[in-house]
């Protein structure tokens, strides 16, 4: 058991720090298994803890202080983040759901929770993209890279290039084993995205191969050059993933916004739209293409391929990147 004190004690017996207590309670709840689920909930819990400690938050460091009003205030904060374009609806709903789950694990009951995250946020999530992805224009990407370079954000620039060239998620780009991937590009003409993937989709049991064209090779070389000494990825030796996000990636997001790029996930969508056009010779639906009307089988095959390359393996998710079938 992860309990470090009496159940009625601080953080319901899970330690003195709110940031530590949540993940420990989740490990207990899932009996030491379901690592990816625990990790996802824990990451979102840390976002809640950061809010608690911020100027906007209540300043709590003990889960016993958290009540329904606290959660309603957090939901209001997330609503504001959505309106400002800092968060998408799905991310905000996931954060509220994870706070519900973690609080239940800490308390041992469900007396303090947001009954309906979607209602609390006042918005329904949509899984179909209706606006064109930022970053499809390679000139825009170059401007982003130049702006990042001017502020010595070479590692963040490497993330931008990798996400746009390969469709990697932020975590995948940061943790990618660069020497291995470069060897694969050289010997096989394609790369296998295996590091930092979601839901345990790593290793030989879940291959995710991407063709290594010239754009991919350039992105990999740029990332190798930006990689710290004696590191295989974009993290310095002894640097944690969380510290890199907080101290390096977060400050650089402002540069992205100044160049009209909402976030790294937009680059993943830009990659998907470009791949759709390569596979079908038609623009992606969100860009005005109508392949799904002209050749539905071709549209279906392209969506299936893009699903595999993005690491979802669910064809319905692709609509969130390239648009739906009207």
UniProtKB/TrEMBL annotation:
Record has DNA-binding as a keyword: yes
Domain Integrase catalytic as annotated: residue spans: 138-274
A Pfam family: Integrase_1
Top-rank lineage group of the source organism: Bacteria
Gene Ontology biological-process entries: DNA integration; DNA recombination
UniProt-listed InterPro entries: DNA_brk_join_enz, Integrase-like_cat_sf, Integrase_catalytic_putative, Integrase_recombinase_N
Molecular function GO labels: DNA binding
Keywords: DNA recombination, DNA-binding
Name assigned to this protein: Integrase
